[in-house]
Amino acid sequence: MFSCWLSRQYWGFSTPTGRIAHLIRGSLSRTLVLSSQRRTPEFSSFVARTNTCGELRSSHLGQEVTLCGWIQYRRQNIFLVLRDFHGLVQVVIPQEESAASVKKILCEAPVESVVQVSGTVISRPPGQENPKMPTGEIEVKVKTAELLNSCKKLPFEIKDFVKKTEALRLQYRYLDLRSFQMQYNLRLRSQMVMKMREYLCNLHGFVDIETPTLFKRTPGGAKEFVIPSREPGKFYCLPQSPQQFKQLLMVGGLDRYFQVARCYRDEGSRPDRQPEFTQEVLPVFPKASRNWNTPVAQSILEEQRSGLIRLMEIQEDDVVLLTAGEHKKACSVLGKLRLECADLLEARGLVLRDPALFSFLWVVDFPLFLPKEENPGELESAHHPFTAPHPSDLQLLYTEPEKVRSQHYDLVLNGSEIGGGSIRIHDAELQRYILATLLKEDVKLLSHLLQALGFGAPPHGGIALGLDRLICLVTGAPSIRDVIAFPKSFRGHDLMSSAPESLPPEELKPYHIQVSWPADSEA
Amino acid sequence: MFSCWLSRQYWGFSTPTGRIAHLIRGSLSRTLVLSSQRRTPEFSSFVARTNTCGELRSSHLGQEVTLCGWIQYRRQNIFLVLRDFHGLVQVVIPQEESAASVKKILCEAPVESVVQVSGTVISRPPGQENPKMPTGEIEVKVKTAELLNSCKKLPFEIKDFVKKTEALRLQYRYLDLRSFQMQYNLRLRSQMVMKMREYLCNLHGFVDIETPTLFKRTPGGAKEFVIPSREPGKFYCLPQSPQQFKQLLMVGGLDRYFQVARCYRDEGSRPDRQPEFTQEVLPVFPKASRNWNTPVAQSILEEQRSGLIRLMEIQEDDVVLLTAGEHKKACSVLGKLRLECADLLEARGLVLRDPALFSFLWVVDFPLFLPKEENPGELESAHHPFTAPHPSDLQLLYTEPEKVRSQHYDLVLNGSEIGGGSIRIHDAELQRYILATLLKEDVKLLSHLLQALGFGAPPHGGIALGLDRLICLVTGAPSIRDVIAFPKSFRGHDLMSSAPESLPPEELKPYHIQVSWPADSEA
């Protein structure tokens, strides 16, 4: 469904229903441009306001204007600051007896009420200009005012400097969205995605295709939500990504596909959730050690020491950080340690990472398989079973599969993984061999994909970017919750609407399911 | 997640993994443009092919070209027609002894295999030009060939004139997607949506915002899929539309919002599905009657007849179609009858509806409430409980609510409803009165929305278009299944992957649900 929506302050008011059609068409085709790029607004006859709050300057002096916005604050019942998402403007409340009704509206309306005012743009009295405010040279002397909607007592003030708890922000998300930062993040996200679309669609002929989200589980898809259907015992799954569909589109001749896809991963309240790796492993390396006398260094033989000194060209006052243990974990620890060292050095004033730079990095040559953690004699896919082996390692698949490199690639921005992709297997027999013989997966679940590869699948590959994380890095937001309009809490709750919620048994009946309540001992 | 994907025939082959990064960047930034507008392709050093199949003309004579595509058909082991989504081209299989291996590849590859060929563009021998084929003046004399992927025996031929059953098309959807019609529909859809985005985003400052699909049920939301969470007895719902979120965005100051949103309605296998209304009611009016002697006309009194004749200005040979009965049903019947008459007249050669025209129509002044079918003493919303009443009818809400008109509007294209929207209620008290007092709904389910309206909600409204249906009308597709890449069958099945599917009880355990199998008598 394609849906677009507007606040009506950008239209006329008291509109007879018969004119709605014109309103919608008028507003879609002719009304003002709202974007963070501050283009010149354009107005249709259906728009009540003549200007946005943020755009008035000395050049508007003497003009009659109509503004709409939220009341940001009021001073001594004389001044009122009006806000929309183009900025702030000061309006002067009339004090004359003849304007008593206008004064009453503007003085009684609570902060964050929506009002419409008309009046004249005037200079601020000398010495009262506010150079910090883009509209600080002028103010609007109000003649008429209308209260469009009154505001009840707010749970917190809509000011960026007012600190709120995360839970309160999520509960009143629609108020939190009024903050400058959330407005900026969401508007920038929209523009970034639009640029990506223009680039792919308009410049390079990619086709934007929506793939289903009511699907079936994929092998190893333990993180997929299940959806009961009206057929007893039959379930859909919400996919973790359009994984299979993009391959099927390649087989279908949609040779350049892209999608901004919704992905579902059920890990909200997993009891086996891992704590941060730094917490787990850095008590092992309590401090960078400046001599060979720490407990760890004690276990290094004398000849290993001299070997190390030679190899690393260690000199007086150098620091060497060592890890021991299982290869993958040791590497992870060294990675964390490297970041920790950078933090320590930067805290002392050494600039190692310029936050204004976007440093991209490709990671390639991943192994295709890894030994299973619970059973190292068996293999599992390092990424997923559809990744193609490196062409030079093809023969190793049949002799030493654990040595095969994959055609997987990850994209890293400023140290964070923002995306990844792979060249996929397009040969049905190779795919079957990897699934059935090497990974011992049930190929029946993927019979449609194997069949599709057999019907002239072209060689293909692609990439997917984690959009939330990418926008986080670009905006500098501390959490992906700050770049999503309505995020869930880390336990997967919608604190605003309180989803998920209990349902009466009769609503479950059409789906042929019932709740298995845990025994008291488990609850 | 943002995902883009390419068939590798548009890249180089035998690419070492270390070059993947360049490949992806190269192909994203420099390679050919594929669109139905046939812009001039642009090639990077990573692209194997030099031209698309559909673009070669006499102006290319003598050029060395490399083409990739599917084998459309082969004639007498001499000619082979290669297809990509820019068109068809004839290639000449070399017959010389020295080119035996090339001949072998091209003669043995089954139809619909993917091949890459290199050779010279030559003129067809005089008299062998094919004026019906855009590339019909030339052919490509092949020097080298590579089989990129072989094709197994197909369940049906990829030719538009080959008729397939709907079930077979859905089962092998990836093959059906290779048809000209499906390619055209999906590529046009992508371009149309892109134009809508450019218009709203770039020209009018709308912000594209993704809203959640794991939500809670809305009042009257019996058609919403439920998703069990890992908390016992707690469920999410998949929303029928971003209904509430768009209003909350307005409250949040995202003053111009749009989204191409996924909507979920569980009506796939409802046992109470209604048959087409025409079937049900047209046995009552078996034929348009040309005299007053039909059984229906018999029940009209003499004085009513003369009244009718005067009112309708009936003359000799005129046809009057009457319905009687409950107002809404009678109107529906007359509407169907009108279309039926148009069909009859058009069948006799009278052109009433030009299929090349796009005739738009707004429907306004809907009633806000309708009497409940099961209990006509109570009211239900004609559309949904958030629609604002017509401003002139506001007082009737408290006296004669059934007479209140709504600020709802529907958009109709060539007789089909393609969208609708409304001005919403922005006043919390009015919304509460309508929900609790007039509609007797449980307001607790909507407490977050009522609260949000109280915090300075601006007046607002919008519109949503049913994209599938709109694209159907534009492309002339007979069914919305023809404008969706991977549609479900009318019973909600994915015939390709066989979703929904059975899940073992252990996969349901984390969600605290079990299947209630119907008793034998019900099954």
Structure description:
Chains A, B: One of its GO terms (biological process) is aspartyl-tRNA aminoacylation. Chains A, B: It comes from Zalophus californianus (California sealion). Chains A, B: Keywords: Aminoacyl-tRNA synthetase, ATP-binding, Ligase, Nucleotide-binding, Protein biosynthesis. 2 copies of one chain form a homodimer. Chain A has a domain of 97 residues: Beta Barrel (OB fold (Dihydrolipoamide Acetyltransferase, E2P)), CATH 2.40.50. In chain A, β3 and β4 form a beta hairpin. In chain A, the strands form 5 sheets. In chain A, strands 2-3-4-6-5 form a 5-stranded mixed β-barrel. A 4-stranded antiparallel sheet of chain A has the order 11-14-15-16. A two-stranded parallel sheet of chain A has the order 7-10. In chain A, α11 packs antiparallel against α12. About 11% of the residues of chain A have low confidence. Chain A is built from 14 helices and 18 strands. The radius of gyration of chain A is 31 Å and the shape is extended. By secondary structure, the first copy, chain A, is α+β, with helices and mostly antiparallel strands. Helices cover 26% and strands 19% of the residues of chain A. Chain A starts with a strand and ends in an 8-residue tail after the last strand. The interface between A and B is large, with 177 and 177 residues.
List keywords for this structure.
OB fold (Dihydrolipoamide Acetyltransferase, E2P), four-stranded antiparallel β-sheet, 523 residues, homodimer, alpha+beta, five-stranded mixed β-barrel, 26% helix
